[in-house]
What does this fold into?
Amino acid sequence: MCRVPLVMPVYRRLSQAPWNRAVRARTREWRAWLRADPRLRALGSAPRSTFPKRRSGVRTQLFEVTSRHAVGR
It folds into this structure.
């Protein structure tokens, strides 16, 4: 079984800085591409940690390969 994680930044405040806008745009593009791929099935978000909140601003969405053909071949 092969899984593909999509690690995405989490913003506490939406900055309009060019770099942040570009990261948000690429994140939307990658998520749309993974969701549209018929070889993949979204499993949902990774479980949240039981530890106190950290300053790391990322979250993960998992996808599972459902086809016999490997992704990217």
Q: What stands out?
A: The beta strands are 3-9, 40-45, 58-65. The two ends are 16 Å apart (CA to CA).
